[in-house]
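Morning!

This is the sequence you dropped in the shared folder:
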Amino acid sequence: RRSSDLNDMNSAFPPMPFSLIELPHNYEDIYWEFSTAKCDKCKSVPTNPAICLVCRTLVCACTSCCRDIEYGECTQHAEFCTGGMGIFLLTKICSVVLLRGERRTFWGSPYLDAHGEEDPQLRRGRPLFLSEPRYKELERLWVHQAMDHDSRVLEEENSELDGLLY
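The structure's back. C-alpha cells below.
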C-alpha cells in the first residue's frame, strides 16, 4: 500500500483513547439515564442493566433474554468490545463486575457516600458521588490489564457470581 492510503485510513479511524468512559459526579444521574434505556440486542429495558465502562453500551446482565448457551451478554459484549476483559457498572446494585474469560469478580463501586463508604445493593439510600481515586484505580486495572495480577481481584474471583452467567 502507498503511505497516502495508510494516512487516509488513519484519519478515517482515529485511535481511541485508552481510558474508561467519563462518569457523572452524582450516581443518581447515571442511574436515571439508563433506568429506561433499552438493550440493543433484545430491545427491552433490562431487569439488571449493566453499562460497559469502556464504550458506554447498555447490556442485560444475568438474564436469559440475551445470553447464548454458555455466556451472558456482558461476556459476549466484552469479547466484542475489548477482546475479553469486561468492566461493567451494574446500575441496580451500584457495583462493578470485572470479567476475563471464565473469571468474574465484583470490584466494588466507584461511587461513595459523603462518609466515603459504599452503599452495597443501594440499601441505605444515601446520595452517592464519584470517587475519582477509586475510578482511577479501576481504570489503572483495565489500562494495564492487571486483573490477573491484582491481589484484591484475585481474592474475590469466582467463575460464576451468585450462580448467574454474566
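Headline: Residues 132-143 form the longest helix (12 residues).

More detail when I'm at my desk.
O.
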